[in-house]
Write a structure and sequence with these properties.
- The protein has 5 helices and 9 strands; from the N terminus they run ββββαββαβββααα.
- Helix 3 packs parallel to helix 5.
């Protein structure tokens, strides 16, 4: 797997050589655009607005518009010249509790992997953060953009999570009202949550829509008949209180049908010899 970035984590006087690797994969089903008449691929041409000729990818350069219709050309060398040694380093600014970072700020996740000579300082940073229950807030350049990051320790390594800057995060368009809730409503709501609570196991969940889409694609490829999924029956409109009461009763019924756990037999302590 090719590295997205190669550089180093700067931690005080310590220099930790690392490479960043994308931590997630794009497993979406991708479609092509086709002509309705003959089913051929629809392709887009890049055409010069000045001469009207089609332009090949190798002849396209980047430019910045400094005034209407006037551009300055930027080369890859220009972008590299803008980078300093600091820009090629993930500079730790300070440490913080993970709970201090609101989830809305999280953007993209990378594996930070130690490079040659970085194993020991990498492990020092990982273990110290893990034992202190902290994450590192850092800055670094990925591609042609500076990113704010959170370096998050795990049992196996360090994750580099890019964060949105504060001015990139939007507020809610409208703050929801906070109507009064009775103690009974709160108690019933909490009871439902407690009954539904279990450990999060990501391997339990899968993309059911994508699986159904694949089955349709395969059926069409084999000229098989496609049957539509049954429609969900609309639920009767009832009051919130009635809904809570019904959910609590269903949860209790589910608990009653679960066989009781056998009492654990306490082992006798081994006698000292």
């Amino acid at each position: 797997m090719a590295a997205t970035m190669k550089g180093a984590i700067s931690f005080g006087l310590l220099h930790v050589p690392v490479s960043l690797h994308t931590a997630v994969a794009d497993n979406d089903i991708h479609f092509n655009q086709l002509c309705r008449e003959d089913g051929s691929r629809v392709r887009y041409k890049k055409v010069c607005a000045g001469c009207g000729k089609e332009v090949e990818s190798g002849d396209i350069v980047k430019g910045f518009e400094i005034e209407p219709g006037r551009y300055i050309e930027m080369t890859e060398e220009d972008f590299e010249k803008a980078k300093t040694r600091k820009d090629k380093t993930i500079q730790i600014l300070h440490f913080a509790d993970i709970g201090d970072i609101r989830p809305i700020y999280f953007d993209k996740t990378y594996h930070a992997v130690p490079e040659v000579g970085g194993d020991k300082p990498y492990e020092l940073l990982r273990r110290c953060m893990l034992e202190e229950g902290t994450v590192a807030i850092a800055k670094g350049v990925i591609g042609q953009s500076e990113h704010l990051m959170a370096l998050i320790p795990t049992d196996t390594g360090i994750l580099a999570e890019t964060l949105f800057f504060h001015d990139e995060v939007k507020s809610m368009p409208k703050e929801p009202a906070k109507p009064e809730l009775s103690e009974q409503e709160l108690t019933m709501g909490k009871t439902i949550i407690q009954n539904m609570k279990e450990n999060f196991d990501p391997s339990k969940y899968h993309d059911e829509y994508k699986e159904k889409l694949w089955s349709i694609i395969q059926a069409k490829a084999n000229n098989q008949e496609i049957t539509s999924a049954p429609e969900d029956q609309p639920a009767n409109v009832i009051s919130m209180m009635d809904a809570l009461q019904k959910m609590v009763e269903q949860a209790k019924a589910g608990q009653d049908s679960t066989p009781p756990k056998k009492p654990r037999t306490r082992k006798k302590a081994a006698s000292a010899s």
